[in-house]
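Exercise 7. Given the components listed, write out the predicted structure of the assembled complex. Treat all entries as one system.
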Amino acid sequence: MAEETQFILNSFAFLFWGVLVMWMCAGFTMLEAGSVKTKNASVVCLKNIGLYAIAGIAFYLVGYSIMHVGVEAGGWFGSFRFGISATSAEQALAQGDAARAAAVVRTGHASMSHWFFQMVFVASTASIVSGTLAERVRLQAFFVFVAVLTAVIYPLVGAWTWGGGWLGELGFRDYAGATVVHSTGGWAALAGVLVVGARRGKFGVDGSVLATPPSNVPAVTLGVFIIWLGFLGFNAGSRLSLSGAADAVAVSLVVINTNLASATGVLAALALSRYVLGRVDLRAGLNGAISGLVSIAAGPELVVPMWACLIGAVGGAICTFGMRLLERLRIDDEVGAIPAHLGGGVWGSLAVCIAAGGHPGVQTAGIGAVAIFVFSTSLGVWWLIDKVMGTRISAHVEALGQDATELGIESFPEFILAPEPELPTDAAAPLRKGH
Amino acid sequence: MAEETQFILNSFAFLFWGVLVMWMCAGFTMLEAGSVKTKNASVVCLKNIGLYAIAGIAFYLVGYSIMHVGVEAGGWFGSFRFGISATSAEQALAQGDAARAAAVVRTGHASMSHWFFQMVFVASTASIVSGTLAERVRLQAFFVFVAVLTAVIYPLVGAWTWGGGWLGELGFRDYAGATVVHSTGGWAALAGVLVVGARRGKFGVDGSVLATPPSNVPAVTLGVFIIWLGFLGFNAGSRLSLSGAADAVAVSLVVINTNLASATGVLAALALSRYVLGRVDLRAGLNGAISGLVSIAAGPELVVPMWACLIGAVGGAICTFGMRLLERLRIDDEVGAIPAHLGGGVWGSLAVCIAAGGHPGVQTAGIGAVAIFVFSTSLGVWWLIDKVMGTRISAHVEALGQDATELGIESFPEFILAPEPELPTDAAAPLRKGH
Amino acid sequence: MAEETQFILNSFAFLFWGVLVMWMCAGFTMLEAGSVKTKNASVVCLKNIGLYAIAGIAFYLVGYSIMHVGVEAGGWFGSFRFGISATSAEQALAQGDAARAAAVVRTGHASMSHWFFQMVFVASTASIVSGTLAERVRLQAFFVFVAVLTAVIYPLVGAWTWGGGWLGELGFRDYAGATVVHSTGGWAALAGVLVVGARRGKFGVDGSVLATPPSNVPAVTLGVFIIWLGFLGFNAGSRLSLSGAADAVAVSLVVINTNLASATGVLAALALSRYVLGRVDLRAGLNGAISGLVSIAAGPELVVPMWACLIGAVGGAICTFGMRLLERLRIDDEVGAIPAHLGGGVWGSLAVCIAAGGHPGVQTAGIGAVAIFVFSTSLGVWWLIDKVMGTRISAHVEALGQDATELGIESFPEFILAPEPELPTDAAAPLRKGH
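Answer.
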C-alpha cells in the first residue's frame, strides 16, 4: 500500500483513539462528582476541567519534550526544550510546499497526532489522583501538584519506558500504561493521601469505618461507561500504528481483549463483593470494570482471548480485596482509585509474564523503579506544597463543603438535602495524616 | 486501491462503528435509570453494566460461533465451538510472521473486528429487555435470562439471517437488525412482561392506569441522544465494509437516512402525542426518535432520503399509538421499549418492501418466524427461571425499592424525596401476570 | 496513493468528525438543562431534541441547497431546490453499477457525507440560540425560529462564505465557523433576547441583578466536556479533506491547537473571574473553555501552537468580561452563550489577522456583514413571530415553570425542592423587552 496512505492512517488513528481517551476525562469527572458528597461536587467538576487544562498546557510546555524528544537509548530523560510544534518539514507542507511531502511521509505519522495521543494519557494520570483525594484536598494545592505531575514526574517515567530510556532498553513491557499511567497515578495518589490525610470522620478512633456511599449513583455509572469506552482507545491506540494488516489484526485483538477483561472484572468483583464487602456491591462492580481494563493494559495484544478473561477477573478480584485492605490500613481513597489503578496496574504488569512473554525480573524491576521514583517524588512534592501553601482544607470548609466555601455555589441549589449526621466528638479531631 | 488498505479500512470501520454501538449501552442505562423511580435507579445501573459484561462473555463463549461459524447455506445454526480467537494466520501475523500477511489480507477484515461489531449488537438486544422489565424483575433472574438470550436465542436468529442460514437464503432483508436485533429484543421483553407481570399498582381494577413519569428527565434525554449517536454506527457499520467508493457512498447515505428517520420520528410522535396521549409528551417524542431509528434499520441504504423521512415518521407514529395500546392491553412496559423496538422493527422490516425492494412474502415470513421463535423460546425460558428461582421481586421489595433491599444503597442518599402516594388497597393485591 | 482510497478517507472523515459535532447537541442540552431552574429543565430537553430534528429536516429540505448547490462565484445564494440526494452517479454505484465508480471517485468525497457534516453545524447554531433564551421563550415560537434560522438565515451566511459566495471571494477567512456558525448563533440569540426580554426578576428596578446559578452543576460540566470533545471534530473536520499527508499534518495541528486554546481559555477565565466576577467562578471557567474553542475556530491550522494558547486565553478573558458586560447592559443570557460564541467568534475572526494571515479589512467586513444581516433578519423574524403567535411565556407559566404548564411533567418529580424566593413586587411587573 502507498506510504502516504500509511501516514494518514497512522495519524488519524492517533487522533481517533486519542479522542476516546480525552473522553475518559469526562468519565472520571462523572465518577468522582457522583462519588463525593453533594456539597463537594462542584469543586470536583472544577478540579477535573482544570486538571485537563493544566495537563494539556504542562505537557505542551515541557512534558512532551522530556518524555519523547531526544531521549538517549537507555537514558533517563529527553530535552527540556520549551514548547513543541510540528517539524519544519510539516510546517512547510501544511503551508503548501508539496515538495516536502516525501520527507514528511517518511516519518510515519504527523508529529502532532502523536503529541495529542500522549497528552490525553497524562491527563488520565492526573484524574486518578483527583479521585483519591476528593473532599479534602485544597483546590490550588491540587492544581500545583497536577502541574508537577504532568510536566515532570509522569514524563520522566514515560522517558524511561516509551521514550526509549533505560527501562525500555531492559525490555520492560507496558503496552498501554498499566505501570506508566495507572501505577504512576496510583502511587502519586497514595503519596497524596498520606500527606493530606483522610476525610474527617472516615475512620473512628474505635476502629470503625464510616460508610461514604456515592451521592449520585447514575453519575458514577455513566462515568464508568465512559471510562470503559475510552479505554478501548487507550489500549488500541497504544499499538501506535494502523498502517498494515498486522496492525489491524492486533488492534482488533486489543479491543476485544480489553472488553473481555473489563467484563470479567465486573463479574468477578460483583461475585466476590458479597463475601469481601458483605453484599453485592455496585461500587465494587463498577471499580471491577476499571481494574479489569487496567489489568489488561500491559499486554492486550494476546491472541487467545481467554487469557484476557482470566487477567481481568483477577484484576476485578484484586480491586475488591484492595478496597477492603485500604479501609483496614485506614487509607482513605474516595473513589477506590488506588485498588483499581495501582492494584490493577501492578497485577497487569506482572500478568504480562504469564500471558505475553514478559520477563519476570524485568517486569518486577520496572514496577519497583516506578514505585520508588513516583512515590518518593510525589511524597516530596506533596510535602513541599503542604509546607508552602497547605494541602488540606480546614475543618470548617470540610464541614460546610468546598462548593459553598471555595466557590460560593451549590451543585444542586434547589434540592433539599438531608442534614448530615453529626460526627462523634472524637472524630472531630483533625485526622491529618490519615492514621 | 491496495488490498491491504482495504483490509485495514474494513477492520477499522468495524471497530469505529462498534465503539458507537457500545456507547448505546450507556444510553440505554441513562434512559432506564432516569425512567424508573429513584428507589430503583441503582439496580438499573447494575443491571446494565452487568448485562453488557454478561453479553460480551456469553457471545464470546458460544454465541458468536452459533451465529457465524460454519452455518450451512440455508441452515439453522453454526458450530458450538467453545470460545473464539483470531485465525491461525492472524495469530502468526500479529506475532510477527509477515509471510502470513497475504493470507490474512485475503479474508477482507480482521476476524476479531467483526466479532466486536457483532458483540455490541447482542448487548443492545439485552438492553431492550432490561428497559421493559425495570422495577420488578429480580436481578439474578434477569442476568440468567440475558445469558440465555445472548448465548443462544439471539445467535440463532442471527444464524438464520446474517450468518447465512435459511432466512438469509430466502432473501430476507434486514440491513442493520430491525428484526434481528430490535424485534428479537422486543419479543423477548414481551414474553418477560407476561411472566413477570406489571408493577404493582400500575393498572387499577377499575381499569385506571397509574401515571409513572420519569424520575430524572435530563438523564432520559441524555440517554436518547446517546442512542441516536450510537445508532449512526449501528446502521452505518452494517454495511460491513469500507473498502471501496461504493461503500463510502452507501455508508454516507445510511448515516443521513438514519438521522432523517429519527428526526421525523421525533416530530411525528410529538405532533401525534397531543391527540393520542392528551398532551405534547416529551417521552413520546424521545421514544419517537428511537422508533424512527429502528424503523429505518432494515433498509437504510435508500438513495432517496425522502423515503427515510416517511419511514421514520410512520415509525414515530406507531410508537406513540403503541404506547397507548400497551396501556389498553394492560401490558406494563416501563420505558416504552416494546412500541419503539418491536413496533418500529416490524414496521421497518415491512417498509423495506416499499422503499428498498424487499419481497413482502419473505419479509412477512421472516418477521413471523422470528416472532414465533423468540417469543415462544423466551416465554419458556422466563417460565423456567420463574419456577426455579423466581423472576419477581416481593411486594415488600417493590414497595421499598430494589436499591435499598437488594443492594443496600440509595441512588441519591442525600436528597430528600417526596413520600410515595399509597396504593389503593385493591391495587396492593399481587398483579402477577399483568392482566 | 489511490484515488479511491482518498475518496473513502475524505468521506469517512466527514462522517467521523460529523458524529463528534452531532454529539455537541447532547452537550448543549446538558449545559442548558443544568443551567436553568429545575422547573424548566424538561422543556429544555424537549427544545434541544426538537431543534436537532428540525434543523436536520430544514437543512435537508432547503438549507443545504441554498448554501452549497450552485452558488455563483461571488454570489449571494444557491438554488432553492427542494430536498437533496446523492448524485445520479452515486445512486447508480450504490445500486451496483460499478462502471460509475470512476465518475464518483473524481468528485473527491461522497456527497452525502458532506451534507451530514454541514447539517450538524447548523444544529449547533440553533443550540446557541436555545441556551440564551431559556426559561422564557415559548416552545412553539422557538421551534418556528429554528426552522427559519436553519432553512434560510444560516444557509445564506454559509453561501456567502463556504459556499463560494461574495465573502469567500473577497478572501474572508473562517476555517471552522467562528463567524459563520458562532457569531451567527450569537447574533440570532441577541436579537431574540431583545424581543423576548429578560426573565422576570432578573434585573431589579434598583439596578440589582438576581443571581441565577445553575441548578445542576455536574450536568453543566458534562455538557462542557461533550462540547470540548465535539469541537475537536468541529475544527478538524473543517479541513474538509483527509486524503494526503498535508491533510493529516494539518488536521493534527488543528486538534492540538483547538485543545490548547480551550485549555488556556479555562485558565484565563478562571483567573480573571476572581477580579471581574468577585470569585473563582466555575461557570466562567466552563464558558472560558467554550470561548477558547470558538476563538480558535477561525484559524486553527496554526503551525506554532503558542499562538493558539494566546488566542484561547484572550477568548476566555473576553467571555468573562462579556458575562459582566451583559449584566450591565441588562441583557439576560441564561447560559452566557453570547459572550462565549459571539464574543469568541468576533475575536477569533480578527485573531486570524494576527496569527494566520487574514486581511484586517476583509475580516472586519465579513464580521460586519454577518452581524448586520443576521441580527436584522433575526430581529425581524422574532418580531414577526411575536406578533403572530407570541414569543414570551406568560408570567403565570414563568412562575410555575414551563415543565408543569407546557408539558405537564416535572424533571425530578420525586425530589423535594426548596420553595423559590418571592420576587419583589416591582420585579413582578412584566419586564418585556428586557430593558
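Discussion: Chain C is about 70% helix and 0% strand. The two ends of chain C are 61 Å apart (CA to CA).
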